[in-house]
Hints:
Layout: H1 8-29, H2 36-49, E1 53-57, H3 60-70, E2 78-82, H4 87-95, E3 99-103, H5 114-119, E4 125-129, H6 140-150, E5 153-157, E6 165-166, E7 169-170, E8 177-181, E9 195-199, H7 202-211, H8 233-264, E10 279-280, E11 286-289, H9 293-302, H10 332-338, E12 341-344, H11 352-366
Parallel strand pairs: 2-3, 2-4, 4-5, 5-8
Antiparallel strand pairs: 1-9, 6-7, 6-10, 8-9, 11-12
Helix pairs in contact: 1-8, 2-8, 3-4, 3-7, 8-11
Pyridoxal-5'-phosphate binds next to α3 and α4.
Amino acid sequence: MKVPFFDLSRQHRALASELEAAVRPVIESGAFILGPEVAAFETDFAAFCGCRHAVGVACGLDGIKLALRALDIGPGDEVITAANTFIATAFAISSAGATPVLVDIDPDTFNLDPAKAAAAVTPRTRALMPVHLYGQPAEMKPLLALARKKGLHVIEDASQAHGARYRGTRAGSLGAIGVFSFYPAKNLGAFGDGGLATTSDETLARKIATLRNYGSIVKYHHDLMGENSRLDTVQAAILRAKLRHLDAWNAARRRLAARYEELLRGAGDLVLPKPPPHLEHVYHLYVVRTRRRDALQKFLTEQGIGCMIHYPVPIHLQKAYQGHPWKPGQFPITEQFAGEILSLPLFPELTDSEQECVAETVGRFFR
Ligand SMILES: Cc1ncc(COP(=O)(O)O)c(C=O)c1O
């Protein structure tokens, strides 16, 4: 049996009529930029996260950039984030003009290590940017305490953690601003690019809403040097319809993760994700570790099982940051994990027999 790493068409087939019904009124209205459909999605998503405000933007990268700009973080400022994340987290900090300060990850959570973050604070640090990578919330309590003590802002990169909870509170409502990506493969994905920033601070929400729309709230009056980074109205209609299913999809992801835990336990040197109970993981990705990663990936691929590496080259070793004074070996856990991690197929529509086939093939590799 072949098992895809991810198959979005299953979700979309099941929702076809619902999504068509959501989009049709937008097409008929002829109004494709902002408007009531975007505002309605923002209201629904803010309520979902337990925040007062949400502002739709063009993508997650822009959401982080505009969050930084809204907090007046830019040239001369440092922002602390995790060494193990998707490149967009660092690029957004750099393109806001600030300096990304990477710190190594906690090997148990794969996320920003609070003690290392504390050690990286300098007089130029303005913000902490934990990333809830793979769908698992970062250890927020010590990070929030550190931010309070040092007078720093906390911006959550929740791009992979729609619906995840930290001690019962949704990702995106723990810091000053939370940012989400609606890249199609995300737990909540658009039919293209999309993103959103959450906050309970009305001034920040208004500033992000101004910045995303050419610095304008009142048409042709431009108060700030803004950008064109709006969430498309068609995407908002699709996302609003899909949001109603997100809790059920996340529950399905969690069930599949629990089943993998049963099926894969004891296979070779495989290390499985094991979030402590206060971190409600939503398994955007199911990431295992093994010293035999490359051989396992080759074997699974040959057997028709989709698998991927998130991410094979850590940020500090990327060509784009060649001029930056980071050195190989500086973030040893991130570097070790980059050689050991493998993401196995996990999406809500994965069937029991497909999952059993993945687990059986992994078991066969180790035998
Ligand atoms: C952790 C993280 N941050 C930021 C982003 C950027 O989101 P987008 O691709 O919507 O710009 C992503 C998207 O893949 C991500 O995974």
